[in-house]
Protein backbone atom coordinates (compact mmCIF):
# COMPACT_ATOMS: atom_id res chain seq x y z
CA UNK A 1 0.00 0.00 0.00
CA UNK A 2 1.26 3.45 -0.92
CA UNK A 3 3.18 5.22 1.90
CA UNK A 4 2.55 2.35 4.27
CA UNK A 5 5.43 0.88 6.32
CA UNK A 6 6.49 -2.76 5.92
CA UNK A 7 6.10 -4.91 9.04
CA UNK A 8 7.82 -8.11 7.87
CA UNK A 9 10.89 -7.48 10.05
CA UNK A 10 8.72 -6.41 13.00
CA UNK A 11 6.98 -9.76 13.58
CA UNK A 12 8.72 -13.10 14.12
CA UNK A 13 6.19 -14.90 11.87
CA UNK A 14 7.66 -12.67 9.11
CA UNK A 15 4.23 -11.91 7.69
CA UNK A 16 4.52 -9.39 4.90
CA UNK A 17 1.96 -6.75 5.85
CA UNK A 18 2.14 -2.97 6.35
CA UNK A 19 0.93 -0.33 8.80
CA UNK A 20 0.02 3.29 8.22
CA UNK A 21 2.60 4.59 10.74
CA UNK A 22 5.35 3.02 12.83
CA UNK A 23 6.89 5.12 15.59
CA UNK A 24 9.62 4.13 18.04
CA UNK A 25 9.21 5.65 21.51
CA UNK A 26 11.97 5.89 24.10
CA UNK A 27 10.11 7.51 26.99
CA UNK A 28 6.65 7.74 28.53
CA UNK A 29 6.00 11.30 27.24
CA UNK A 30 6.65 10.26 23.64
CA UNK A 31 4.49 7.18 24.07
CA UNK A 32 1.57 9.29 25.28
CA UNK A 33 2.16 12.00 22.67
CA UNK A 34 2.04 9.61 19.70
CA UNK A 35 -0.81 7.59 21.16
CA UNK A 36 -2.89 10.79 21.55
CA UNK A 37 -1.95 12.00 18.07
CA UNK A 38 -3.29 8.80 16.52
CA UNK A 39 -6.31 8.62 18.82
CA UNK A 40 -7.32 12.19 17.98
CA UNK A 41 -7.38 11.22 14.31
CA UNK A 42 -9.52 8.20 15.13
CA UNK A 43 -6.71 5.81 14.21
CA UNK A 44 -6.16 2.56 16.11
CA UNK A 45 -2.86 2.12 17.97
CA UNK A 46 -0.95 -1.10 18.63
CA UNK A 47 1.94 -1.11 21.09
CA UNK A 48 4.49 -3.67 20.01
CA UNK A 49 7.59 -5.28 21.43
CA UNK A 50 9.29 -7.80 19.17
CA UNK A 51 6.11 -9.06 17.49
CA UNK A 52 6.93 -12.57 18.76
CA UNK A 53 3.46 -13.35 20.09
CA UNK A 54 1.26 -12.02 17.30
CA UNK A 55 -0.04 -13.08 13.90
CA UNK A 56 -0.91 -10.32 11.45
CA UNK A 57 -3.89 -11.45 9.35
CA UNK A 58 -3.95 -8.32 7.16
CA UNK A 59 -2.52 -4.80 6.86
CA UNK A 60 -2.84 -2.61 9.93
CA UNK A 61 -4.76 0.62 9.32
CA UNK A 62 -3.32 2.49 12.31
CA UNK A 63 -0.15 3.43 14.18
CA UNK A 64 2.28 0.94 15.64
CA UNK A 65 4.23 2.20 18.64
CA UNK A 66 7.44 0.30 19.28
CA UNK A 67 8.00 0.56 23.01
CA UNK A 68 11.74 0.99 23.60
CA UNK A 69 11.71 2.56 27.06
CA UNK A 70 15.00 1.38 28.56
CA UNK A 71 16.58 1.12 32.01
CA UNK A 72 17.62 -1.58 34.48
CA UNK A 73 17.88 -0.48 38.12
CA UNK A 74 18.97 -2.98 40.76
CA UNK A 75 18.72 -2.58 44.53
CA UNK A 76 19.38 -5.20 47.17
CA UNK A 77 19.05 -6.04 50.83
CA UNK A 78 20.14 -9.07 52.83
CA UNK A 79 17.47 -11.35 51.40
CA UNK A 80 16.58 -10.09 47.92
CA UNK A 81 17.49 -8.27 44.75
CA UNK A 82 14.88 -5.93 43.33
CA UNK A 83 15.08 -5.08 39.63
CA UNK A 84 13.08 -2.28 38.08
CA UNK A 85 13.17 -2.72 34.28
CA UNK A 86 11.94 -0.54 31.42
CA UNK A 87 9.37 -2.22 29.15
CA UNK A 88 11.64 -1.65 26.16
CA UNK A 89 14.50 -3.84 27.39
CA UNK A 90 14.82 -7.18 25.60
CA UNK A 91 13.81 -10.00 27.92
CA UNK A 92 16.67 -12.35 27.10
CA UNK A 93 19.23 -9.53 27.38
CA UNK A 94 17.89 -8.83 30.87
CA UNK A 95 18.33 -12.51 31.80
CA UNK A 96 21.90 -12.48 30.44
CA UNK A 97 22.67 -9.25 32.31
CA UNK A 98 21.53 -10.72 35.63
CA UNK A 99 23.44 -13.97 35.10
CA UNK A 100 26.61 -11.98 34.31
CA UNK A 101 26.10 -10.02 37.52
CA UNK A 102 25.73 -13.26 39.50
CA UNK A 103 22.07 -12.62 40.19
CA UNK A 104 20.27 -15.94 39.75
CA UNK A 105 16.54 -16.59 39.37
CA UNK A 106 15.78 -15.83 35.71
CA UNK A 107 17.84 -18.62 34.12
CA UNK A 108 14.87 -20.91 33.30
CA UNK A 109 13.30 -18.06 31.33
CA UNK A 110 16.40 -17.50 29.18
CA UNK A 111 16.12 -17.23 25.40
CA UNK A 112 12.44 -16.26 25.37
CA UNK A 113 12.16 -13.68 22.57
CA UNK A 114 10.39 -10.38 23.11
CA UNK A 115 10.57 -7.31 25.31
CA UNK A 116 10.06 -6.96 29.06
CA UNK A 117 6.80 -5.01 28.59
CA UNK A 118 5.05 -7.99 27.01
CA UNK A 119 6.26 -10.52 29.59
CA UNK A 120 3.50 -9.94 32.18
CA UNK A 121 0.72 -9.87 29.58
CA UNK A 122 0.77 -13.58 28.99
CA UNK A 123 2.79 -14.36 32.13
CA UNK A 124 5.67 -15.85 30.14
CA UNK A 125 6.82 -19.21 31.33
CA UNK A 126 9.25 -21.96 30.50
CA UNK A 127 10.85 -25.00 32.10
CA UNK A 128 8.88 -24.87 35.34
CA UNK A 129 9.11 -21.11 36.01
CA UNK A 130 6.60 -18.36 35.26
CA UNK A 131 7.10 -14.62 35.42
CA UNK A 132 4.40 -14.49 38.13
CA UNK A 133 6.83 -16.19 40.56
CA UNK A 134 9.26 -13.27 40.43
CA UNK A 135 7.15 -10.28 39.39
CA UNK A 136 6.53 -7.80 42.19
CA UNK A 137 4.68 -5.13 40.19
CA UNK A 138 3.81 -3.85 36.72
CA UNK A 139 3.69 -0.10 35.95
CA UNK A 140 1.24 1.01 33.29
CA UNK A 141 0.02 4.28 31.84
CA UNK A 142 -3.73 4.57 31.61
CA UNK A 143 -3.84 6.03 28.10
CA UNK A 144 -7.24 7.65 28.51
CA UNK A 145 -6.60 9.62 31.71
CA UNK A 146 -2.78 9.77 31.37
CA UNK A 147 -2.26 8.46 34.90
CA UNK A 148 0.46 6.05 35.89
CA UNK A 149 -0.77 3.06 37.86
CA UNK A 150 1.22 0.38 39.67
CA UNK A 151 -0.36 -3.09 39.70
CA UNK A 152 1.13 -5.12 42.53
CA UNK A 153 1.47 -8.87 42.12
CA UNK A 154 -1.90 -9.77 43.65
CA UNK A 155 -3.68 -7.30 41.36
CA UNK A 156 -2.09 -8.69 38.19
CA UNK A 157 -4.27 -11.81 38.40
CA UNK A 158 -1.53 -13.96 36.89
CA UNK A 159 -2.60 -17.33 35.59
CA UNK A 160 -1.26 -19.81 33.08
CA UNK A 161 -0.39 -17.64 30.01
CA UNK A 162 -2.81 -15.04 31.27
CA UNK A 163 -3.06 -11.91 33.40
CA UNK A 164 -5.29 -8.91 33.96
CA UNK A 165 -3.42 -7.13 31.14
CA UNK A 166 -4.35 -9.61 28.43
CA UNK A 167 -7.78 -8.08 27.95
CA UNK A 168 -7.10 -4.40 28.57
CA UNK A 169 -4.33 -3.53 26.14
CA UNK A 170 -6.44 -0.82 24.49
CA UNK A 171 -6.46 1.06 27.78
CA UNK A 172 -3.00 0.43 29.25
CA UNK A 173 0.58 0.72 28.03
CA UNK A 174 3.04 -1.22 30.15
CA UNK A 175 6.07 0.98 30.83
CA UNK A 176 8.08 -0.95 33.43
CA UNK A 177 8.14 -4.13 35.44
CA UNK A 178 9.48 -4.82 38.96
CA UNK A 179 11.08 -8.16 39.73
CA UNK A 180 12.05 -9.60 43.11
CA UNK A 181 14.67 -12.35 43.27
CA UNK A 182 15.50 -14.33 46.35
CA UNK A 183 19.18 -14.43 47.32
CA UNK A 184 18.70 -17.99 48.60
CA UNK A 185 18.82 -19.57 45.15
CA UNK A 186 17.32 -23.00 44.55
CA UNK A 187 17.53 -24.38 41.01
CA UNK A 188 14.17 -25.31 39.47
CA UNK A 189 14.87 -28.60 37.72
CA UNK A 190 11.46 -30.31 37.85
CA UNK A 191 10.97 -30.13 34.10
CA UNK A 192 11.82 -33.55 32.69
CA UNK A 193 14.63 -32.36 30.41
CA UNK A 194 16.41 -30.64 33.33
CA UNK A 195 16.24 -33.66 35.59
CA UNK A 196 19.76 -34.78 34.52
CA UNK A 197 21.33 -31.72 36.17
CA UNK A 198 22.62 -32.28 39.68
CA UNK A 199 20.58 -30.04 41.96
CA UNK A 200 23.34 -29.92 44.62
CA UNK A 201 26.09 -28.83 42.28
CA UNK A 202 24.53 -27.03 39.34
CA UNK A 203 25.14 -23.28 38.91
CA UNK A 204 22.68 -20.71 37.49
CA UNK A 205 24.93 -20.32 34.46
CA UNK A 206 24.87 -24.07 33.79
CA UNK A 207 21.06 -24.04 33.87
CA UNK A 208 21.10 -20.99 31.56
CA UNK A 209 23.44 -22.77 29.10
CA UNK A 210 21.47 -26.01 29.26
CA UNK A 211 18.21 -24.19 28.49
CA UNK A 212 19.91 -22.75 25.41
CA UNK A 213 20.80 -26.27 24.19
CA UNK A 214 17.27 -27.64 24.75
CA UNK A 215 15.57 -24.66 23.11
CA UNK A 216 17.81 -24.78 20.05
CA UNK A 217 16.92 -28.45 19.58
CA UNK A 218 13.17 -27.93 19.90
CA UNK A 219 12.35 -24.48 18.57
CA UNK A 220 12.95 -22.92 15.17
CA UNK A 221 14.98 -19.72 15.06
CA UNK A 222 12.72 -16.91 13.78
CA UNK A 223 15.73 -15.52 11.88
CA UNK A 224 15.48 -18.44 9.45
CA UNK A 225 11.90 -19.77 9.87
CA UNK A 226 8.93 -17.56 10.71
CA UNK A 227 7.16 -18.58 13.94
CA UNK A 228 5.82 -17.26 17.24
CA UNK A 229 6.73 -20.16 19.53
CA UNK A 230 3.79 -22.22 20.78
CA UNK A 231 0.72 -21.30 18.77
CA UNK A 232 -1.76 -22.87 21.19
CA UNK A 233 -1.96 -22.93 24.97
CA UNK A 234 -2.03 -26.25 26.76
CA UNK A 235 -5.74 -26.82 27.45
CA UNK A 236 -6.83 -26.94 31.08
CA UNK A 237 -9.91 -29.13 31.55
CA UNK A 238 -12.23 -30.24 34.28
CA UNK A 239 -11.25 -33.41 36.17
CA UNK A 240 -14.36 -35.26 34.87
CA UNK A 241 -13.49 -34.53 31.25
CA UNK A 242 -9.90 -35.63 31.94
CA UNK A 243 -11.07 -38.92 33.53
CA UNK A 244 -13.12 -39.76 30.44
CA UNK A 245 -10.11 -39.06 28.22
CA UNK A 246 -7.75 -41.13 30.40
CA UNK A 247 -10.07 -44.14 30.04
CA UNK A 248 -9.71 -44.01 26.27
CA UNK A 249 -6.07 -42.82 26.24
CA UNK A 250 -4.37 -44.20 29.38
CA UNK A 251 -0.98 -42.81 28.27
CA UNK A 252 -2.19 -39.27 27.82
CA UNK A 253 0.30 -36.95 29.61
CA UNK A 254 -1.09 -34.33 32.01
CA UNK A 255 -0.28 -32.00 34.88
CA UNK A 256 -2.61 -31.63 37.87
CA UNK A 257 -3.33 -28.00 38.72
CA UNK A 258 -3.66 -26.46 42.18
CA UNK A 259 -7.38 -25.80 41.61
CA UNK A 260 -8.05 -29.49 40.84
CA UNK A 261 -8.20 -29.00 37.09
CA UNK A 262 -6.02 -30.92 34.67
CA UNK A 263 -3.61 -29.43 32.14
CA UNK A 264 -3.26 -31.53 28.98
CA UNK A 265 -0.43 -31.15 26.49
CA UNK A 266 -1.62 -29.55 23.27
CA UNK A 267 1.43 -30.89 21.38
CA UNK A 268 0.52 -34.47 22.32
CA UNK A 269 -3.11 -33.98 21.22
CA UNK A 270 -1.95 -32.57 17.87
CA UNK A 271 0.49 -35.44 17.32
CA UNK A 272 -2.23 -37.99 18.11
CA UNK A 273 -4.23 -36.47 15.26
CA UNK A 274 -1.24 -37.43 13.07
CA UNK A 275 -0.60 -33.81 12.20
CA UNK A 276 3.11 -33.54 13.07
CA UNK A 277 4.93 -32.03 10.09
CA UNK A 278 1.60 -31.29 8.30
CA UNK A 279 2.03 -28.72 5.50
CA UNK A 280 -0.64 -26.29 4.33
CA UNK A 281 0.75 -24.29 1.41
CA UNK A 282 3.57 -22.22 2.88
CA UNK A 283 2.36 -22.79 6.45
CA UNK A 284 3.34 -25.92 8.35
CA UNK A 285 3.51 -27.62 11.72
CA UNK A 286 7.14 -27.68 12.86
CA UNK A 287 8.49 -31.21 12.58
CA UNK A 288 10.29 -31.14 15.96
CA UNK A 289 7.49 -29.54 17.99
CA UNK A 290 3.82 -29.83 17.01
CA UNK A 291 2.77 -26.80 19.02
CA UNK A 292 4.78 -24.51 16.78
CA UNK A 293 3.35 -23.33 13.46
CA UNK A 294 5.87 -22.07 10.93
CA UNK A 295 6.08 -19.80 7.93
CA UNK A 296 8.44 -22.10 6.07
CA UNK A 297 10.05 -19.79 3.52
CA UNK A 298 8.74 -16.56 5.00
CA UNK A 299 6.25 -16.14 2.16
CA UNK A 300 3.07 -17.45 3.84
CA UNK A 301 0.27 -15.00 4.56
CA UNK A 302 -1.25 -14.60 8.00
CA UNK A 303 -4.49 -16.12 6.75
CA UNK A 304 -2.62 -19.23 5.55
CA UNK A 305 -1.17 -19.71 9.05
CA UNK A 306 -4.61 -19.06 10.56
CA UNK A 307 -6.21 -21.63 8.19
CA UNK A 308 -3.71 -24.24 9.39
CA UNK A 309 -4.47 -23.29 13.01
CA UNK A 310 -8.20 -23.68 12.37
CA UNK A 311 -7.62 -27.08 10.77
CA UNK A 312 -5.66 -28.22 13.85
CA UNK A 313 -8.33 -26.81 16.16
CA UNK A 314 -11.07 -28.77 14.34
CA UNK A 315 -9.07 -32.02 14.20
CA UNK A 316 -8.30 -31.91 17.93
CA UNK A 317 -11.92 -30.97 18.77
CA UNK A 318 -13.28 -33.85 16.65
CA UNK A 319 -10.95 -36.45 18.12
CA UNK A 320 -10.81 -35.41 21.78
CA UNK A 321 -13.69 -32.99 22.26
CA UNK A 322 -11.07 -30.56 23.60
CA UNK A 323 -11.02 -27.00 22.27
CA UNK A 324 -7.57 -25.45 21.90
CA UNK A 325 -7.06 -21.75 22.54
CA UNK A 326 -4.38 -19.75 20.74
CA UNK A 327 -1.55 -18.29 22.78
CA UNK A 328 -0.66 -16.05 19.83
CA UNK A 329 -2.73 -12.88 19.40
CA UNK A 330 -4.46 -12.35 16.06
CA UNK A 331 -4.17 -8.85 14.58
CA UNK A 332 -6.48 -7.53 11.86
CA UNK A 333 -6.95 -4.17 10.08
CA UNK A 334 -8.07 -2.34 13.21
CA UNK A 335 -6.33 -4.30 15.95
CA UNK A 336 -6.77 -7.49 17.84
CA UNK A 337 -9.36 -9.98 16.62
CA UNK A 338 -11.02 -12.22 19.17
CA UNK A 339 -9.99 -15.86 18.65
CA UNK A 340 -13.70 -16.68 18.99
CA UNK A 341 -14.22 -15.12 15.54
CA UNK A 342 -11.82 -17.63 13.99
CA UNK A 343 -12.18 -20.71 16.17
CA UNK A 344 -15.89 -21.32 16.36
C1 LIG B 1 10.89 -18.96 19.09
C2 LIG B 1 9.94 -18.47 20.15
C3 LIG B 1 9.94 -19.07 21.39
C4 LIG B 1 9.06 -18.63 22.40
N1 LIG B 1 9.11 -19.23 23.62
C5 LIG B 1 8.27 -18.80 24.60
C6 LIG B 1 8.32 -19.42 25.90
O1 LIG B 1 9.12 -20.32 26.15
N2 LIG B 1 7.45 -18.99 26.83
C7 LIG B 1 6.55 -17.97 26.59
O2 LIG B 1 5.79 -17.63 27.50
N3 LIG B 1 6.50 -17.38 25.38
C8 LIG B 1 7.32 -17.76 24.39
N4 LIG B 1 7.27 -17.17 23.15
C9 LIG B 1 6.26 -16.11 22.90
C10 LIG B 1 6.80 -14.67 23.06
O3 LIG B 1 8.19 -14.63 22.96
C11 LIG B 1 6.39 -14.04 24.39
O4 LIG B 1 4.99 -14.02 24.51
C12 LIG B 1 6.90 -12.61 24.54
O5 LIG B 1 6.67 -12.14 25.86
C13 LIG B 1 6.29 -11.63 23.54
O6 LIG B 1 7.02 -10.44 23.60
P1 LIG B 1 6.98 -9.39 22.43
O7 LIG B 1 7.74 -8.19 22.88
O8 LIG B 1 7.44 -9.99 21.17
O9 LIG B 1 5.43 -9.08 22.36
P2 LIG B 1 4.61 -8.68 21.04
O10 LIG B 1 4.39 -9.89 20.22
O11 LIG B 1 5.23 -7.50 20.40
O12 LIG B 1 3.22 -8.24 21.69
C14 LIG B 1 2.37 -9.21 22.24
C15 LIG B 1 1.09 -8.49 22.71
O13 LIG B 1 1.39 -7.61 23.79
C16 LIG B 1 1.09 -6.25 23.44
N5 LIG B 1 2.17 -5.43 24.00
C17 LIG B 1 3.50 -5.63 23.81
N6 LIG B 1 4.21 -4.75 24.55
C18 LIG B 1 3.31 -3.97 25.20
C19 LIG B 1 3.43 -2.90 26.13
N7 LIG B 1 4.61 -2.42 26.54
N8 LIG B 1 2.29 -2.34 26.61
C20 LIG B 1 1.06 -2.80 26.21
N9 LIG B 1 0.90 -3.83 25.33
C21 LIG B 1 2.01 -4.40 24.84
C22 LIG B 1 0.99 -6.22 21.93
O14 LIG B 1 0.10 -5.21 21.48
C23 LIG B 1 0.47 -7.61 21.63
O15 LIG B 1 -0.92 -7.65 21.79
C24 LIG B 1 8.15 -17.58 22.13
C25 LIG B 1 8.15 -16.96 20.86
C26 LIG B 1 9.05 -17.41 19.87
C27 LIG B 1 9.06 -16.73 18.53
Counted up, domains total 3
Q: Order of SSEs, N→C? A: EEHEEEEEHEEEEHEHEEHEEHEEEHEEH
Extract low-pLDDT stretches.
none
Apparent shape? globular
- Tell me what portion of residues adopts beta-strand conformation: 25-35%
Radius of gyration: 20 Å
Walk across the major sheet and give the strand order. Answer: 6-7-12-10-11
Tell me the number of helical segments per DSSP (H or I, 4 or more residues long). 8
CATH topology of the largest domain: Uridine Diphospho-n-acetylenolpyruvylglucosamine Reductase, domain 3
Question: Which structural class best describes the helix and strand composition?
Answer: alpha+beta
CATH class of the largest domain: Alpha Beta
Mean pLDDT: 96
Largest sheet: 5 strands, antiparallel
Number of strands: 21
Bound molecules: flavin-adenine dinucleotide
Query: What is the share of helical residues?
Result: 10-25%
What's the short story on this structure?
Helix content is 24%, strand content 28%. By secondary structure, it is an alpha+beta fold.
Provide keyphrases for this structure:
single chain; 344 residues; alpha+beta; Uridine Diphospho-n-acetylenolpyruvylglucosamine Reductase, domain 2; Uridine Diphospho-n-acetylenolpyruvylglucosamine Reductase, domain 3; Uridine Diphospho-n-acetylenolpyruvylglucosamine Reductase, domain 1; 3 domains; four-stranded mixed beta sheet; 8 helices; 28% strand; binds flavin-adenine dinucleotide
Amino acid sequence: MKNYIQLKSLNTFSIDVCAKHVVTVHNECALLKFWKKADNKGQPVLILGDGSNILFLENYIGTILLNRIKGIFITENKMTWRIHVGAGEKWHELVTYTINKNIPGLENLAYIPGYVGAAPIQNIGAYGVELSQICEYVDVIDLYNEKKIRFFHAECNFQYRDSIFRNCLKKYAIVSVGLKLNKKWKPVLDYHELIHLNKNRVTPRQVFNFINIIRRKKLPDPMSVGNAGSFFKNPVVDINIARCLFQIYPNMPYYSQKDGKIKLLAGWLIERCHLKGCVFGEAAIYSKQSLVLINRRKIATGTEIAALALFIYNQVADKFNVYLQPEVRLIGNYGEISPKKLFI
